[in-house]
Amino acid sequence: MRNAGARIAGGEILCFVDADSRIHVETFNVIERALTGRVVGGATGVALERWSLGIAVTYAIMVALVWIMRMDTGVVFCRRADFEAIGGYREDLPAAEDVMFLWALRKLGKQRGQRLTRARKAKAIASMRKFDRYGDWHYLTLMPRALPWLIRRSRSFEAQAREYWYSDRR
């Protein structure tokens, strides 16, 4: 879907966000300022709709991953030319296509002396829809099941991932 949106978009800067997220009123201004010559693209980060102990623990783990990987989530952005240069989002992946996209964008930027950025002054509001459906602790059991898929592309997890991410479209 993200690739389809990019194909019909008219601008030179492309922005991608999950359909159930809400964007900050300053998102596009912050992104425009962030895309300097030293920056290939990036993301805004997220704030959460609600909190609980399970969500806070999950968030803490995810923040650690953001720091380690030096990439974020929320509204992901780049120039159209760079999107096309890396071939857009991988449509063969049922999950983590956003991470793969940012890795490819980072690699492209590194070749040109550019980097990914985190435009945190305009965080998207992340939906808690999955937590509402599966429980506030569910991510802690989902992540270990995803690891074998990330390593060897297990078909059983692929089916689970498609069910998890796409079965309850709004």
Labels describing this entry:
170 residues; alpha/beta; four-stranded mixed sheet; 8 helices; 6 strands; 51% helix
First-to-last CA distance: 14 Å
Biggest sheet strand order reads 1-4-2-5
Number of domains: 1
| Total helical elements | 8
Major sheet size, sense and barrel closure: 4 strands, mixed
Helix residue percentage: 40-55%
Helix and strand pattern: HEHEEHEHHEEHHH
Radius of gyration: 16 Å
Report the structural category. alpha/beta
Question: How many DSSP-defined strands?
Answer: 6
Binned strand content? 5-15%
Low-confidence stretches: none
SSE map:
Layout: H1 2-8, E1 13-16, H2 27-34, E2 39-43, E3 46-48, H3 53-69, E4 76-79, H4 80-86, H5 97-111, E5 115-118, E6 124-126, H6 129-134, H7 139-152, H8 155-166
Parallel strand pairs: 2-5, 3-6
Antiparallel strand pairs: 1-4, 2-4
Helix pairs in contact: 4-5, 7-8
How would you describe the overall organization of this protein?
The protein is of the alpha/beta class and 170 residues long. The protein has one domain (2-166). It has helices at 2-8, 27-34, 53-69, 80-86, 97-111, 129-134, 139-152, 155-166, and strands spanning 13-16, 39-43, 46-48, 76-79, 115-118, 124-126. The strands form two sheets. Strands 1-4-2-5 form a four-stranded mixed beta sheet. The protein has a two-stranded parallel ribbon with strand order 3-6. Helix 4 (80-86) crosses helix 5 and helix 7 packs across helix 8. The longest helix has 17 residues, at 53-69. It is globular.
